[in-house]
Amino acid sequence: MINVEKHSTKEFTPEVHFIGSAQRFKSKKQVLNQDVIYVYCPIHRELEIGRIIEDYSFDIVINDYSLCDLHGKIICHFESASLEAEQRQFLVKATELGAWVEPLVSYLDSRLRYTEVRLLHSGYFLHQKAFSILSTKRTQLAKRVIDIASALLLLFFTLPIGLIAALAIKLESRGPIFYRQKRTGQYNVEFEVIKFRSMSTDAEHGGAQWATKNDARVTRVGNFIRKTRVDELPQVINILKGEMSIVGPRPEREVFITDLEREIPYYRFRHAVKPGVTGLAQVSYPYGASVDDAVWKHKYDIYYIKHHSMWLDIKVLFITVKVVLFGMGR
């Protein structure tokens, strides 16, 4: 349910006694499980926000400045800099009187575990210190060390599998064992990604095409190595060369990026980090090859960049191993 309240500019004086912040909520989990949240935004953004969040499992009340009992309420604000002084004071007062007050996008990040990219504006990306993976050299160095160590371990343990895959590819069809394709990486620099060939050699004789779930161009061996992610193993070379990371947004082709950035807000921001062999989007969203699918994957990619941590990388790697072992390729 979405309730859009009539905007009011009257003085806001909620009549409720102050309750200390320690007594507001027992845990963040309680904050994220509320049935109703209250959203405050410029009046001209009400309908837009309503359309974006209408499918959520919790109720949303927009711009209800008549709310008096603020204790225990979830108060989210959107573009608060565009609100009038009295309206901003209402949000400050809500904090004083026991409400949980947080930017809407940040709250949805925590609750949904992805970023609602349709609510993003340039200001979201201009606080670089909020993106530790971009602003902290120690984090970048640690990630690079983990990348090199992971690539060497992967190479050591999967070399027999790679040799068997190479032999099977060669026996099944004519053509090269490896497939090289230009992808766009960090800072929009193109590089050649290396994979085991999983398609026939004339797969794109008619031009660049989206790969689909049951793609007729995929060979029998290719179908198996795709499901088990064996086709990605040669990308350890890209990792060692510093072109890719073990975890990050999957690299895309420039021909598709040009189209996608027309449809998806801030799509190229994913290039602020190195692309990954696996990523949060790959383990969180099923296989897809459409603009809608790209939008959903972008939600997870932006969330990953914003909330990157070593723990998140480990979690993604753990899920990826499960996918490989049980053949649930995405």
TrEMBL record:
<keyword id="KW-0812">Transmembrane</keyword>
<dbReference type="GO" id="GO:0016020">
    <property type="term" value="C:membrane"/>
</dbReference>
<keyword id="KW-0472">Membrane</keyword>
<dbReference type="InterPro" id="IPR017475">
    <property type="entry name" value="EPS_sugar_tfrase"/>
</dbReference>
<protein>
    <submittedName>
        <fullName>Sugar transferase</fullName>
    </submittedName>
</protein>
<keyword id="KW-1133">Transmembrane helix</keyword>
<dbReference type="Pfam" id="PF02397">
    <property type="entry name" value="Bac_transf"/>
</dbReference>
<dbReference type="InterPro" id="IPR003362">
    <property type="entry name" value="Bact_transf"/>
</dbReference>
<feature type="transmembrane region" description="Helical">
    <location>
        <begin position="145"/>
        <end position="169"/>
    </location>
</feature>
<comment type="similarity">
    <text>Belongs to the bacterial sugar transferase family.</text>
</comment>
<feature type="domain" description="Bacterial sugar transferase">
    <location>
        <begin position="143"/>
        <end position="325"/>
    </location>
</feature>
<dbReference type="GO" id="GO:0016780">
    <property type="term" value="F:phosphotransferase activity, for other substituted phosphate groups"/>
</dbReference>
<keyword id="KW-0808">Transferase</keyword>
